[in-house]
Amino acid sequence: MDVKQPLEKTLCQLLHEQVITNGKAVALEHDGRVVSYAEVWSVCVNVASAIRNLLTAIGKDGKVCIAIMAYRSIQTVQSIWSILLAGCHYVIIDPDLPIERKLWILRETKAVILIINDIDGNEDEKQTMSVVPTATFESLLNQIKETDNISMQYYLVKNSIKPDDLAYIIFTSGSTGTPEGVCTTHKNIVCRTVGVGCHSIRSGYRVGQICSLSFDVSTFEIYATLLNGGVLVIINNSAIASCSALAAHHLNMVNPPTAIFNTLAKQPEAASFFPALDAVIFAGEKANSKSVQAVTQYASSMLINGYGPTETTHNALCYIITKESSALHSIPIGRPLPNTYMYVVDSHLKLVPIGVSGELLIGGAGVSAGYFNDKKLTAQKFIMNPFISINGPKNQKIVYRTGDIVRMLEDGNIEYQHRVDSQVKIRSQRIELCEIESRLLDLEEISEVVVILRNDIFEEHAADQQHLVAYVVLTKALHSTEDRIRCCLTQWLPHHMVPSFIIILETMPLNSIGKINRKMLPKPAMIKSVRSIVLTILASVLKKQTLLGSANFLQLGGHSLSAMEVMARLYQSFGITRLSVTYFKVSLSTITPTKLNRL
After folding, report:
1. Whole-angstrom distance between the N-terminal and C-terminal Cα of the chain?
2. Cα(65)–Cα(424) distance, rounded to whole angstroms?
3. Which residue spans traverse the membrane (predicted)?
4. Nearest Cα to 348, choosing from 361, 364, 366?
5. Residue 405 carries which DSSP code?
6. Total-model pTM
7. Which domains does the chain have, with CATH numbers?
8. pLDDT tens, residue by residue, 297-325
9. Helix count (H) and strand count (E) of the chain?
10. If you write DSSP's letter for every residue of 98-133 in order, what string do you get?
């Protein structure tokens, strides 16, 4: 549907409008520190000038890519705006990624500068600094001794940055075996954040930033909040999955990944936390009906199920859940947001009738500019709209093939059904199984591999207990172990993509026509696999090659900060969100899946 949105303006122009009308209001808040809109603008303008000076010094100019490797913080948000004000675009690199993946992203995007929060001289930093010039936000800020003329800087920015210019590149798991970089423009973001209608963000409205910066919804948290005059409250990792910890921030809105929403909904404190909110928008994977029903029983806040691939910036459809609709077996993903168009089609790209399953196509101003440095894949997934004439509106000419099979309900809402390919989601993280399979086949000792998603390991068909399982057949005359294979995978894949279980088979089970019989793939042998994963996590966090089974986490040098990292890794592998302090005091030899399953 067509709604008047400021699509002709850039992100920088819209932020400046908030500075003019809302300058003294709080824009950012973190750990007791607050920063006003005027302060954000002043600081970011100066850092933008420093970035331009640095680009000139290294012989670069124009609209180049600048990388940011940092966690959620005030400086990280300011780094993002500084890059945009400098007329450049950015890519976020998760500090927890394996070094090989970090270096690959830097080389692939041809990033000319890497901005980090602190330089502590660790091995990863040394390797990244050898690839690209590195600077901290503070060092860039200190390069400018006097405040630039803000109005003049704004005039220059307004005339040099265009709505169709790239704002950021975000990498997702790739169907070709390598990550896919999605290119998002200023216009794409404005379409999803200003004049949307699914939120009421305004001056003083407190929005929690809880999503990982590598998750596309984090861009909604940042831009929807700051372009509408709200307060972006940056939440520490230790608080994002706790109702009581989040409640202490007195938020109006949270936008949790579905997995975090499910975790929050189960907590006793949910009965007081959710009613205190104005709105909750969860997204990332199929809604859990039990969690939705639990929240709607005692929450008066607006509860919204969001849907949208990274290729459509983030949420492109939304569904407002009521007590009545929460009882539905499958919660719909809703209707399109403003200036967004959807079509449900068959394999020949012909519209299907209401109630009939088909692939969802999405068009409109929120559809991204395609994949970075991959014209072939862009042409396959971003196609000419078959329902619009060649002279039709520009924003409707291209549609994105989501690969999601859906059906339109009688009331016009869309119901998600399944994927057409091997893409899955675990705890809201998008994963292409073929990327994992490709990395496994790169190992010379592996000749065959199948990676599947199982939810019947700890208990029968538990939707929130999904785990990746890799089945491999070794090359004759070569030997390997589950631990060695996992160690090799962690050199490239993010933690959430490393299979929880790796099963070595003599041969793959086949059906009568010679295809792999996935139903015959065995369940993992629990105790060995779970202990192996936990020990791998502990060895990585504690940076030790070997671990004494008789020792516990604390005796091996663990502390509160490293315990938080262990928790984050256990969440990625098993969905565990809480651990008793006593668990860190038991000897490693006593770790069992039964103990983990009781957490």
Report:
1. 46
2. 29
3. none
4. 361
5. E
6. 0.79
7. 431-524 (3.30.300.30), 526-599 (1.10.1200.10)
8. 876 678 999 999 999 999 999 999 988 88
9. 19, 25
10. -HHHHHHHHHHHT-SEEEES-----HHHHHHHTTS-
